[in-house]
Amino acid sequence: MYQVRLRLPTFDAVYARSVADPEGFWAEAADELHWFRRWDEVFQWDYPNFRWFVGGQTNIVYNALDRHLTTERRNKAALIWLGEDGTEQVYTYARLAQQVNRLANGLKSLGVGKGDRVVIYMPLTPEGAISMLACARIGAIHSVVYAGFSVGSLHDRIEDAEAKVLITGDYGYRRGNRVDLKGIADEAVVGCQSLTNVIVWRREIAREELGGMEVDFEELLANSSIDCPAEVMDSEDPLYILYTSGTTGKPKGVVHVHGGYMVGTHYHFKNFWDVKDNDVFWCMSDIGWVVGHSYIVYAPLVAGATTVFREGAPDYPHNAVFYEIIEKYGVNVIFTAPTAVRMLMRYGEEPASRYNLRSLRFLTCAGEPLNPEALRWAYEH
């Protein structure tokens, strides 16, 4: 066991203060971030409606990127992306900001502005995260659809959101197989009257022809400026819509906003995981889920952290790739699901024994019950 310095060594006292003085508590948390205009009230509660940082103005992307560019974090790795085939891409905060600004300007050139909805149907790649950040930077509301969803699911979400633009990729990869995202998107957009453009990220060398209202992702970036001021957003302005799965009926679009979402996820990320400035954080979710929104993209970037994320299955191309990544990148904190732990458990302890895992400080799980056997196995191996 390694000794750990926790951010909340006196949890009971901190919790008691949050209950006794919630306005002061959350005002202090919010004051760590940038506001174009400070709020008039920390919250208004008119059950069942709750409004946070009322009258405040901010932009979550300004806090995720611009705030770091005048500090030593400018050239720090923000995102480390890994492909199933061993491909690696590293984005510093400065480079990520440039790419986000380019796409933000590209979206504006297509007529996308504050309040417009953009559906994102992308594989788990930097381009997917850049698409989210570019939308939020100009005040457009993004709605990410998990890249494993069907034609009907994508179509229904485009229609319900009344999306102006769809951003998609040609292919995703899982267990060495290509997933034809563009083919699914082509069928899904039929009859979607609100759409004016489809932006296509073509990752394959043999690029298929684009036509009609389709625009090439890379060309849009190449023809756009790296300067794009962040839109000043009211605290309660929508940031994104994320639809429920639909397993219990018609999918419902859940709206998250710039102010309260930013403060809440930043506070949780910083204190629950105790991520330090030189740590490497790995969230094993997908941007199609709320966990991926919060802990691959927004909260880690707002906190100035370095985040690893990976496209594909955690046991492909071999059953020790999970441990290989921990050793290679010195991963300190992991957020995963009990399903992943049970999968690793099935392969036994031998794959883990081949790698040096001393960098790993926290392994955290959420999303479903973690059985005691898997918990003990994770601690031991």
Q: Can you tell me about this structure?
A:
- The structure is a single chain.
- The protein is an alpha/beta fold.
- Helix content is 36%, strand content 22%.
- The chain has 14 helices and 19 strands.
- It has a six-stranded mixed beta sheet with strand order 5-4-17-16-18-19.
- It is globular.
- The N terminus is likely disordered.
Compile the SSE list and pairings.
Elements: H1 11-20, H2 22-30, E1 41-46, E2 49-54, E3 57-58, H3 60-64, E4 77-82, E5 88-92, H4 93-109, E6 117-121, H5 126-137, E7 141-144, H6 151-161, E8 165-169, E9 171-174, E10 177-180, H7 181-188, E11 197-201, E12 214-216, H8 217-222, E13 233-234, E14 238-243, E15 253-257, H9 258-272, E16 280-283, H10 290-302, E17 306-310, H11 321-329, E18 333-336, H12 338-346, H13 350-353, E19 362-365, H14 372-380
Parallel strand pairs: 4-17, 6-7, 6-8, 8-11, 11-12, 16-17, 16-18, 18-19
Antiparallel strand pairs: 1-2, 3-13, 4-5, 9-10, 14-15
Helix pairs in contact: 1-2, 4-5, 6-7, 9-10, 12-14
List keywords for this structure.
about 375 residues, alpha/beta, 6-stranded mixed β-sheet, 5-stranded parallel β-sheet, about 20% strand, disordered N terminus
